[in-house]
Amino acid sequence: MRRRRLAPLLAVSVTATLAPALATSTATAAPAATPSTAPSSAATKGALDRYVKQKPQWKRCAADAPAELECATIKVPLDYRVPGGKQIDLAISRIKSTAPDKRRGALFSNPGGPGAPGLYMPLGMQERLPESAEQKYDLIGFDPRGVGRSSPVSCGLEPEEENWLRPYKEETFDKDVAWARDVANKCEEKAGDTLPHITTRNTARDMDLLRAILGEKKISYLGYSYGTYLGAVYTQLFPGRADRFVLDSAVDPARAWRGMIQWWAEGAEPAFDRWTGWAAERSEKYGLGDTPKKVDRTFWDLVAQADEKPIEVEGQPTTGDDIRSGMRGAVFSPQEATEAIVELKKAAAGEPASAKKLAAFAGSEGTGTAGAAADAAEVPPDNMTASLWAVVCGDNSAAWSRDPESYRQDAIEDKGRHPLYGDFASSIKPCAFWDKSVEPATEVNNNVGSLVVQNEWDSQTPLPSGQALHADLKGSKMVTVLGGEGHGVYPNGNACTDGTVTGYLLTGKLPAKDVTCEATAASNAEARKNQKRDALPGSPLPERAPDRF
Length: 549
Description:
about 550 residues, alpha/beta, ten-stranded mixed beta sheet, two-stranded antiparallel ribbon, about 40% helix, globular, disordered N terminus
């Protein structure tokens, strides 16, 4: 069932020539304590006008960064309902158009997350976008509020506390509940005044404030994964400010965020079935079974063996839960999944095996990813995780039950429905103990023109998720890559997909109807390469950690 409509928005004019600009919620969308302290619209307008008058002091981002990448810091309100209150930093970057006479405007970007920094993203865009697009746009990046160099948040978490995708076990569930409660409590104690305002809606408002500061009437946008939700929310809050929006590997707004995590489990099952058929057809080469049923049995026998005693490869123990967790992402590329299981089978038999090919199975997902955000010494090591919870819990607290026992029941039931990953996705998370959202979730339902781009086989945002966003954005067209593997499509060297997206960015003309492209061996190989390489700095593709969007 779709959520109810969002409470009305108050459009606030920031300058006579740039109205309407920043949208702020009315008192009906604010906490009970807010109406008596909420500023009048005139006071709000005056405060926002002062923000728009900022002049970014552009300079080289770092001594070892390319000279064409310029960085600056601007101030934004922590709480847009009280713009005269506390301010936070927003770190921004740009690479200017290479042909000012051909310049269309500013192309904003977001790499995914939530919690992934995007300050260096223009470098990756410069590397991979065609020259014609570089001539057309200033490439704009930014670390979202609370992330990286944008007043980074922290919960003071230890590394083991950041491991959040935990399999359900009756004997450990009480400990998992205690962990979730402790994380929420630590976040409240460490950053309770800030975290409620680290939300997608406020990040969209930051984007529009930056638009006004840059003097742009509209912005274009290239967003991946979580960035598709951010872009969709922007189109909902500021429909008149959206120019050419590309939303690649899309989030279903109605499932933000618990439902999107659960979709990791739902999407893995058809991918697993596809894999068993692929491996069975190649049984002479790989020896995993000559029917899908036999391949399935080979896999689950290995899981059972590892449950009894972890399988070791070069001294690294791999449990049954590690295998299930790692296989969730691996099966979206049948060849890589098959090669990994071949090596695991060797190790289980006491034979030499390749640890490199088993890397996906070596330890549970959700560990060791947070430090990727720390591209500056002042960024806390748990910044990615802290900002993740701020968004995932704070965007829509109504999506999260407050009853720990409901998570136990969901984990048990979903493991039965989706045995590969159901309990990981549905078991308890810190959001069960998070404070109530300061605003209702955004219902995306508009006619803004945009282009949704989606691989058929995507481990993070499955195809139905992209189709759902396409349905919500009634002015959108969709590019579906049949047989496409990997998370993040554009650009991948596929003439059909790249040509469609680039054509839209250059001309503003959407396809007359939805487009279906066929994946090529080369484009899928590019996706696998992208999946393995470091996302930072500068990659234009999503944060590739398996516990992020």
